[in-house]
Amino acid sequence: MIMKQLKATLVFICLAHMAFAQNYGGVKKGSAIGFSANLTDFTASLWKSGPLQPGFSIMYWHGIGAKTDYSIRYNGVFTNYSKNLTSNSSYANELEASLHLRMFNNDHLLNPFLSAGLGGGVYGGNFAGYAPLGGGLQMNLFNDGYITLQMNYRVSFSTVNLDNNLFYSLGFSQSIHSTQAYVAPPPPPIPVVVDTDKDGIPDNVDKCPTVPGIAKYNGCPIPDTDGDGINDEQDKCPTVPGLAKYQGCPIPDTDGDGINDEEDKCPTVRGVAKYQGCPIPDTDGDGVNDEEDKCPKVAGPADNYGCPVIGIQSYQIDFKSGSDKLLLHGRGILDTVVAYLNRNDAVSVTIDGYTDNSGSDKINNPLSVKRAEATKKYLVSKGIAADRMTTAGFGSTNPIADNKTAAGRKKNRRIEIKIKP
């Protein structure tokens, strides 16, 4: 039974405290001291009354908020009441503290209130605790004094020494500190958010506070690592400058010849800048490019510098034995050389003279030179420019046949006409 009463008391106090916490605005009561006359019915219940015992109180009141106070009071009761008498005292001492919740702000003339608290007293030599629960009516005398009418039902925590009882009080209290207007604490200051670049990211977390950016990069713009004007999120080559046309990459060079595709006339075949990215041409299709081909418009083997073979046997150019005089048959062979050089006007030739091993080098060497010169002279007479021909004589060196036979010696007595590199 006692535990149930204690729990009910604590719930009432908590609810009252929650209500007190909601008081804002109005006038807060100052400190006040006072006196009251009391009547206590120690045998009463909510449905039964008993004899009233007179008493008095000395009180201290103080405002908590515009509608809330707390009080501390000493009660003296003239009574010999005791459920468990251990002394003959006819006087009981009580001390209690209470919270009070008024209906209106403190500055109202008549103001009903509710009370809840904790107290204890000594009755016939025995201590007992109780919880005063009740209410009353406050009359405000210009915030300078207060008349208070109050009734409490006091719930005992120890029914062995004290019954539940009723308490009635009429008192007066005088302010000792002026009543003050209750000022609610100011709300916490609203933090000022500074966003200099207006990108929605506050300066205190913005790594680039003066340049609009995005949260992903801590308030900075999307980076452009290679500085080509295309941000890294759209740049397929973020570390190499390029063009928007190629998604931030340089102009491609498909064939890898160092000439970009926009300037390369042959973008899929390696070439050179001289020919706008195309290979060096081979006009006659003989496999020798025009820059190395002495006859770029006429097909010829690579070992003949891209020119067709002159088509004569060197020993067919006949000279009188021991002489540089060109025989008639030899002239006819040289006429084919004239025709060849006329067809291939870019070709220059070397004319080399040789002898067989008959006679000494003292005779053969000069003779081979004279025969080469005689050949050149004949070609010049046919209209071939002299500067297209270079002559030399090698005597009996480099034979191409056996000098032991007449046929072999005839082949060794020869003029070799070759295309000059």
Terminal CA distance reads 132 Å
Shape: rod-shaped
CA-atom Rg in angstroms: 66 Å
The oligomeric state of the chains shown is single chain
Q: What is the CATH C level class of one domain, in words?
A: Mainly Beta
Can you walk me through this structure?
This protein is of the alpha+beta class. Among the domains are: 2-181, Porin; 310-419, OmpA-like domain (60s Ribosomal Protein L30, Chain: A, 2-Layer Sandwich), CATH 3.30.1330. It has four helices and 13 strands. The strands form three sheets. An eight-stranded antiparallel β-barrel has the order 2-3-4-5-6-7-8-9. The protein has a three-stranded mixed sheet with strand order 12-11-13. It is rod-shaped and about 180 Å long. The two termini are 132 Å apart.
What would a concise description of this structure say?
The protein is an alpha+beta fold and 421 residues long. Helix content is 15%, strand content 28%.
Q: How do the helices and strands line up, and which of them pair or pack?
A:
Elements (H helix, E strand, L loop, with lengths): L1 H19 L6 E2 L3 E10 L11 E11 L4 E11 L12 E12 L7 E14 L2 E16 L3 E12 L8 E11 L4 E2 L146 H16 L5 E5 L7 H21 L7 E5 L12 H7 L2 E5 L2
